[in-house]
Amino acid sequence: MKEVSVVVCTYNRRKMFEECLESLLNQSYPKDKYEIIVVDSSDDYSKSLAENYKEKARKRGIELKYIYQKPSGISAARNLGIRNARGEIICFTDDDCIADRFWVEKLVEGFDNEKVGGVGGKILIYNQERLSKYLPSIDQYSLINDWSFILGANMAYRRDVLEQIGGFDPLFKSNEDSDIAIRVKLRGYTLKYSEGAVIYFRHRSNLRELIRQQYGYGIGFSRLGKKYPNLQIRKAIFLLLIKLIWNIATFPEYLMKKDKKQIMRRAINIILISSYLIGVISGYVSVKYPEEKIIPCDFKFFKPLADNFLREKIKNKFRLK
Predict the structure, then answer these.
(1) Which domains does the chain have, with CATH numbers?
(2) Burial class for 206, CB neighbours closer than 10 Å (0-12, 13-18, 19+)
């Protein structure tokens, strides 16, 4: 039975974090075989609060390490969690997520041979009401198998692999999960999808927050392009443009049908994709990446670089024969 460390970082989302922590304390994995490491950068952190959480975990027979770090970004917080972890496998989730009871167990099962460096699980939307019911689903399977990315809300890596590559890149304030997945692949390891490892993710609660989030993701994506010049992110941007055009082109059809649900979906997609693309452009103009850290490598595993991948995506989107 593998030793496991679960790392969750939190910043000013106390109620969400407490619900996340409760789900992590209720895992099916043997309690003496996994620990929880919390890295808290919240304004309301206190030693008494940390001790209360530790005591709650002790009553469940689980070791909880609760560490404060001044706000330094998600990469720095996760690296601190890694340094304090004892597990052979390190699982990561976010404070706006709730883990299924079998989450740790199913992630660990994914490491069924030594070549598997990272595993990602299914991400479902939590409480699909109001704005969230109009948002697109998160296809972690395609992200792993086509893009070689694992989203940070539901990912696990071998500890020795993380140590080999030097952990998360602190220059990334977003898309740090994509960056680390790329570096694991470049080391010759495979990434695997685990259908049974389920995380319930909370989308941002209003459109302004969603726009800000997507804009930030766009800036992070541009940083990937600067770190990995052979990644040819222009092709990924082209796919996003195709998706944007498709949403704009189909919008009048649903407007004529007075299909409120589809109208809302198309409108929100147009806004969010546009926000992401603006973030990418802004990142390319304003964000610099140190030349000494640029990695000019081959990306044979990155399917979106293949011309036939682009053609098939376009055909599927517009239903062309």
Answers:
(1) 4-203 (3.90.550.10), 209-318 (no CATH)
(2) exposed
